Amino acid sequence: MNQIKKAGVVGSGTMGAGIVQLLIQNGHPTVMFDINQEAVDRARTGIEARLERLVEKQKISVNELTLAKELLESTTDINAFKDCQLVIEAAPEKIGIKRSIFQQLEEICAEDTILATNTSSLSITEISGQIKKPTRVAGLHFFNPAPIMPLVEVIQGLKTSPEVTETLIDFAKKINKNPVVCKDTPGFIVNRVARPFYNEALRIMNDQVASVEQIDRIMKGAGNFKMGPFELQDLIGIDINFATTKSVHAGFHGEDRFRPHYYQERMVQSGSLGRKTKGGFFSYDE
Ligand SMILES: NC(=O)c1ccc[n+]([C@@H]2O[C@H](COP(=O)([O-])OP(=O)(O)OC[C@H]3O[C@@H](n4cnc5c(N)ncnc54)[C@H](O)[C@@H]3O)[C@@H](O)[C@H]2O)c1
């Protein structure tokens, strides 16, 4: 089994930064790469601030904080992945971007480096379709916020090797996650089950049956969900959530039960994307 000593993460947005935090907190030297220097700087500041809050809350020690900071290498040079045994891609949910990243990674990384994607809904088989050795590509799907949510989906593309799946299961356990193995089907498990949660909430709101606030309150109060469908879209990013719904819908060749709602598209067009833009279905001051 491939020993993962050093890991890499492509993209330092919401998920990339969360995955990096998780890895360094669990003692893995990690390279964090983004094409945008500002995104790298923002992610590093955010990770350090979150780790410092964990020290204040006495969840980690000052020594653990110092070590975690030392384990993080941030860069805008993709060649920094050359000595990683695992690279996890967390770039935007666009097939063209992901395919191009995987083609670059296979040129830079060693032949046995595992190339994983955090895609929410794109096909692993399609992402790895143009690379020379698709056996080393798999999905490693974390949930938001990555340092906290226990589940990780390990997704097998049509050509993913059983050894790669085994290594990822083992790695997920080592970073204190609960892995579940899934086939490469649209939305895998969680995002497929979750589509009606968002879509029906949007329909109920748009039909003026109940307001955004009421629906979230009911789902939390009566349904015992940690977050309502609107609060959760704001956390995930409404654009990301919309892209996932479109992709699951397309993956099922337009099955009507997965049809995206135009109101969500309007929110994306308006630029109100949730917490990251300080406004979505709810407002956020800071
Ligand atoms: N947001 C969520 O809740 C969530 C949950 C699970 C999985 N995902 C998946 O994780 C992935 C990332 O989502 P996110 O919410 O972190 O997105 P995001 O928009 O917050 O971050 C994407 C980052 O990728 C960078 N980027 C763009 N092109 C790049 C390239 N060619 N190389 C390297 N970096 C590049 C951007 O600068 C940005 O910092 C997507 O595939 C998404 O579907 C998201």
UniProtKB/TrEMBL annotation:
Q: What is its EC number?
A: 1.1.1.-
- Which residues are noted in the entry as NAD(+)-binding? G11, S12, G13, T14, M15, G16, D34, E93, K98, S120, N144, K276
| GO BP terms in the entry | fatty acid beta-oxidation
Gene that specifies this protein: paaH
3-hydroxyacyl-CoA dehydrogenase NAD binding domain location is 6-185
User: In which pathway is this protein known to take part?
Assistant: Lipid metabolism; butanoate metabolism
Residues in coiled coil: none
Q: A Pfam family name for this chain?
A: 3HCDH
Protein name in UniProt: 3-hydroxyadipyl-CoA dehydrogenase
Domain of life from the UniProt record: Bacteria
Q: Name one GO molecular function term.
A: 3-hydroxybutyryl-CoA dehydrogenase activity
Q: Which UniProt keywords apply?
A: NAD, Oxidoreductase
**All residue ranges annotated as the 3-hydroxyacyl-CoA dehydrogenase C-terminal domain in the record:** 187-284
Give the protein family: Belongs to the 3-hydroxyacyl-CoA dehydrogenase family.
The record places the site described as Important for catalytic activity at H141
